[in-house]
What does this fold into?
Amino acid sequence: MKHLLHFVVLVTLPCVLSAQFFQVEQGAGYADAVYYDIATRSSTFVGHTSWDIAFNVGGRSSGILVNEGIASSRTEPLRSTELYVSSATDFATADTTQITARVYNGEASWDDGAFNVPAISGDPFDLGWGNYSTATQTVLGSRVFFVVTPDALYHKLFVQSLAGGAYTFIHGPLDGSTTDTITITKEEFIGKTLAYFSFNDGVQDLEPESWDLLFTRYVTPLSDGAGSILDYTVTGVLQNKDVGVAKLSGIDPETVAAPTEDEAYLSSLTTIGYDWKSINLATFQWAIPDDVVYFVRTPDSLYRMQFIDFEGSSTGISTFSLGAEETTATTVLPAGINRSRVFPNPASDRTVLEVEIKQSTENLTLEVIDPTGRTLFASRVRALGIGVNQIEVPLQGLPAGHYFIRLSGTTGVLTHHLIKQ
It folds into this structure.
């Protein structure tokens, strides 16, 4: 009896719907952070000086961040907000002689805050600013921090706990003349990523109800050209917690197909980041590469984004094209197939399509397709046996770029995205 493998349909059509040009303006000296909602093409402006620290208000989150966006390239730049960790564990007696290091936000997620940096690697219960108790299911504070605000004032701060969905922390000046206790309750910020706090204005609800990208300033480690790594303040784009971004380079941004694999869409905050632009040190003009595109995947849609221009600190304007991608979804992977992959990927002269199946199948067609849907190569695969099957795919003569490898039978199509080097 002949068994046919029911292949999963997994296709992204390289069709951009109504791509248009848009601008986000951060203002002179990058004075504002701008929350951008792609679906509505709307911007929400928040002055960098509006807050000092921020708390991740996600259900299981415990990230606490410091404001890294205040310092700018103004004629008279403002001082950065600075965060220092100390060896002190007692708020009342802690002083600046116990400071051990300045710390910065990480770039992995919104839980990767500067307050979380002191966590001991490999200890899942050490969250940096406190330790999680399995007995009480709360986080209890473990370290005293010092925050230096742009007015050069030192603030001593100790996060006492995260319990029952509420952060509680105390802060005050170095001389201990006053002490304030602040509580930030997560349920008051449902749907938001961060709740903000200003030493001048208290708890702030600054984030819009819906946003995907944040045009802002942040600190990142960069080489100084002499073998050392320094922390630089850059202007770039961060992504919200439920947004994935795929970056493709060395391609035609208008015609390249969107990646189909989930692994291509990264959750790291700085997948777009700052390096979509560069400064020409000879002309002091900003340059934008014309072979880079970003595919931004929100919970509802997929968008193609290409940066066109950047005006720098004079206006803080970023210009980009943006269009929705028309995509088809995937069906459930059938019981007859365990897994499939293409390797190597990227590839040069040849690659291999590997398919592991539970039932044998016959009379299949293998194709290499360009982003326009044109078949460049086709051959007949007579049969695949039970277990792992490897099919060699020749790539000689194809220019570098993005392609699809498609294996089709009478009951469906299996498609993989391939990068040709």
